[in-house]
Amino acid sequence: MATLSPAAGLDVPLSAIDVSDATLYATDSWRPVFARLRAEAPVHFQPNSPFGPYWSVSRHADIMAVEARPDIFSSSHEFGGITILDLFDEFNLPQFIAMDRPKHSEQRRVVAPAFGPSEIARMAVEVRRRTQELLDSLPVGSEFYWVDQVSIELTTQMLAILFDYPWEKRRDLTLWSDWGGDIEAAINPATNLIRHQHMLDMTHALDALMAERKAKPPNGDLISAMAHSEAMGDMPFKERTGNYILLIVGGNDTTRNSMSGLVQAFNRFDSEWARLEADASLIPNAVSELIRWQTPLAHMRRTALADAEIAGVPVKQGDKIVLWYISGNRDEEVFPDAERFDVGRANARRHLSFGFGVHRCVGARLAELQLSVLIEELLARRLFPRQTGPAEYVPQAFVHGFRKLPVVLERH
C-alpha cells in the first residue's frame, strides 16, 4: 500500500490511491482523494490494501444502485460482512445488518418496534430532560472537551436507556463501542486480542441481562425484546456478540460523531447558526444536512455473489465492493457546493449516511431526535460551542469521527 500524504490525491497514479488508509482520516485529508476518484475512477480497484483487494464505489448514484441489489451484492457475514475488514475466523460475527434476507428481515423486525413513531415520541421527553440537565451542568466560558462531556455522555445515556443497562456502568457501553467499531485494531494481531477480550466481556455482561429479562415479562427494552423473540431469543454465542455490538456501535458511535460534527460544521460556517437563531423551523433540515456533512460511518461493504457490472465496470463473483458514503455525500452531481454546510439545503435528506434499501438504519429517527433536541436546547440557552483548538480524529476508515474536540461555550 502507498501511504498518501495529507496533500495527496491529485499527484499520484490512480493505482496508488488506497482510501482505506487511516492517515487520510486521522489528518482529515480525504476530500481531494475522493474528489479525484469521483471524477476519474468512480469504480476503482485497489489490489494491495492492508484489508486485501477491494473495489471503491464513490458516486452517489452508483452507491444507491449497489444497495438496491441485495440479491447480487450481499451484506452477509458469510462472505465478509459490512466493513472493508475481512474476518473469516473466530472473530467473524454474524449480526442482522450482516445478513441477507430472510434472516435479516426476521431479526430486524424484533428490534424495529423500539424505534417506531410511538416509541420515539415517548423517548423524546427523556431525551430532552437529559439534554437539558447536561447542558445546564457545563461550564460557560471555560474550555472543556465536547466529545467526552457532551457527545459521548448523551449517546451513552440513551443507549443505557434502550438496553436498560445499569446506569452506573453505562461507560462500559462506550468502551465496547470504541473497540467493536475499530477496524484498525482488528487487523493488528496484538490489539485484536484486546478487542476480542472486550467483545467477550460485553457478551457475558449482556447475556446476564438477557437471562434476567427472559425470566420476566417483556418490559420494552432492546435486550428484553431480543430475549422474548423467536428470531433472536436463542441465538448462538457469536451471533449474540455480533448483534450486541451492532446495536451499541449503531446507537452510540454514529450519533456521537454527528454531535461532534455539529461543533465543527457550525464553527466553519458560523453564519448557519445565525440562520437557526432567526428561524428554528430550519432545525430538522439542519439535522439532515449535518448527518450528510459529517457522515459518521465512512463506508459500508458488500460482496458480489455473481459476476456483475457497476456503472459499466465489470466485477467478479466474490469481489469486495466498498460503498464510500463519505464520498457519495460530497457528490457535486447531487449536492452542489457539497463541501459547504448549508442548513437550508433543499435535498439534504438525500444523504447516504443511513444507508439505502433493506439495510437502511433502523435507528435513524432516534439519531435525528437526539440531534434536533441538542440544537434546540443550545439555542434556547443562547449558547454556542466555540471550537478552541484542533480536533483529534478517529484514525480509521470505518467510523468517521472525533477523539477530542476542545470548546468554550459562549452565551450570545
UniProtKB/TrEMBL annotation:
Keywords: Heme, Iron, Metal-binding, Monooxygenase, Oxidoreductase. It comes from the Bacteria. Coiled coil: none annotated. One of its GO terms (molecular function) is iron ion binding. Pfam families: p450. Belongs to the cytochrome P450 family. PANTHER family: CYTOCHROME P450 YJIB-RELATED, P450, PUTATIVE (EUROFUNG)-RELATED. This is Cytochrome P450. It comes from Sandarakinorhabdus cyanobacteriorum. The lineage of its organism: Bacteria, Pseudomonadati, Pseudomonadota, Alphaproteobacteria, Sphingomonadales.
